[in-house]
From TrEMBL:
Major site of localization recorded for this protein: cytoplasm
Gene encoding the protein: recF
Superkingdom assignment: Bacteria
Source organism: Caloramator quimbayensis
Protein's name according to its UniProt entry: DNA replication and repair protein RecF
Organism ancestry: Bacteria, Bacillati, Bacillota, Clostridia, Eubacteriales
Binding site for ATP: 30-37
Length: 368
């Protein structure tokens, strides 16, 4: 899959720009604060209909304007698709696919598959569980539209349940309503847990092979699902067991005023040579493991969609040592890649036949 053309109107610091990238390595080079990441962000946005930098869509609109527009022509499995997104200053967006208007934003999710790798991702092991849940959720959102829906519903119900828990202190009469929310949480939660379980099983298998290569066979990585609601005895029972789990913890939840446990607290355990790399891994080991996870993400999309995703590398090269850079660059020979950097020195050590360089300066892009 690759982008044939990208047009931005009043998006971040761009008034109007059209970029025609190649199906190879596209290097966006320029000084700081010129608009390189803004391009990457716009591509990410067409994939998930949200930014990875802000929750407020209105921040994407060029200052002083009311709307931002992104148009992307994509070739996917030998067919051509056009995605258009209009963002307004009330954080609402209108989506058009191949000219068909008034689609729900969720209809566009998964049309374009991307994998983004930024310095943030190097903290995948170092930081708390939220960043690892985000990693899993971003991947599953792209691959399974139903997952995206289930997650939105789960979070919405969780918020309502938590509000009710706060009101319930010394008011046992609200317990029945909490039980109703618990049932709804179990409904969507079981879908989330099952999808995560399957995904992590696949991730572990692929990451093991990639990690062996990155570490020249010195390290074995093992990834397992740490499900806050415990282990489920059988797949068909997940919903029932999850419901019991929420019901059993109601009193404790009321005492605390929020839902203590559940899929919203899940994590993944990443072991290297048998020890928990989140706790005991050296900085170098943690970075290599983060790289393995990201490279596995690319392979999982390839195996599910049948085509490689688009790879977005934002400011990440200078954060990796030469050996890790090599592994990253080797993988994207067959993948349309957008790489941002402030100097070409970051990649001059590597040879590429299929590359295009774009200079980014104050909201303009010029092909070299
Ligand atoms: N909504 C907006 N309207 C206009 N300009 C904006 C808006 N949001 C951000 N900018 C401007 O965009 C520029 C930042 O662009 P971007 O983050 O793409 O930089 P960059 O080239 O990737 O820089 P770096 O190398 O430092 O990461 C800044 O000058 C910022 O002021």
């Amino acid at each position: 899959m690759h982008i044939k053309s990208l047009e931005l109107v009043n998006f971040r610091n761009y008034s109007n720009v059209i970029l025609e990238p190649i199906n190879g390595l596209n290097i966006l080079v320029g000084e700081n604060a010129q608009g390189k990441t803004n391009i990457v962000e716009s591509i990410y946005f067409t994939s998930s209909l949200k930014s990875y930098r802000t929750f407020k869509d209105r921040e994407l609109i060029k200052w002083g304007f009311e709307k931002a527009y992104i148009k992307e022509d994509i070739e996917k499995q030998n067919s051509f698709n056009k995605i258009e997104v209009l963002i307004n200053n009330e954080d609402k967006k209108a989506v058009r696919i191949n000219g068909v208007k008034n689609l729900k934003p969720s209809d566009a999710i998964g049309m374009v598959n991307v994998v983004i790798f930024s310095p943030e991702d190097l903290k995948l092991l170092k930081e708390g569980p939220a960043i690892r849940r985000k990693f899993i959720d971003n991947e599953l959102n792209q691959l399974r539209p139903k997952y995206h829906h289930a997650l939105l519903q789960y979070n919405h119900i969780l918020l309502n349940r938590n509000n009710l828990l706060k009101l319930s202190f010394n008011k046992p009469s609200l317990k029945t309503e909490i039980e109703v929310f618990s049932e709804q949480l179990a409904e969507y939660g079981s879908f989330i847990v099952e999808a995560r379980y399957e995904f992590i099983k696949k991730l572990s298998m692929i990451a093991r092979l990639i990690h062996r290569k990155i570490t020249n066979g010195e390290e074995e990585i093992e990834i397992t699902y740490q499900c806050d609601a415990g282990l489920f005895n059988s797949k068909s029972q997940v919903k029932k067991e999850l419901l019991n789990f929420y019901i059993n913890q109601i009193d404790k939840d009321i005492e605390k005023g929020y839902t203590l446990k559940g899929p919203h607290r899940d994590d993944i355990i990443i072991r290297i040579n048998g020890t928990d790399a989140r706790i005991y891994g050296s900085q170098g080991q943690q970075r290599s493991a983060a790289l393995s996870l990201k490279l596995s993400e690319i392979e999982i999309i390839k195996s599910e969609v049948g085509e490689y995703p688009i790879l977005l590398l934002d400011d990440v090269m200078s954060e990796l040592d030469i050996n890790r850079q090599k592994h990253l660059l080797n993988t994207f020979k067959n993948i349309q890649t957008f790489l941002t950097c402030t100097t070409l020195n970051d990649i001059n050590a590597f040879h590429f036949d299929n590359k295009s360089i774009f200079t980014v300066k104050q909201g303009t892009v010029k092909k070299q």
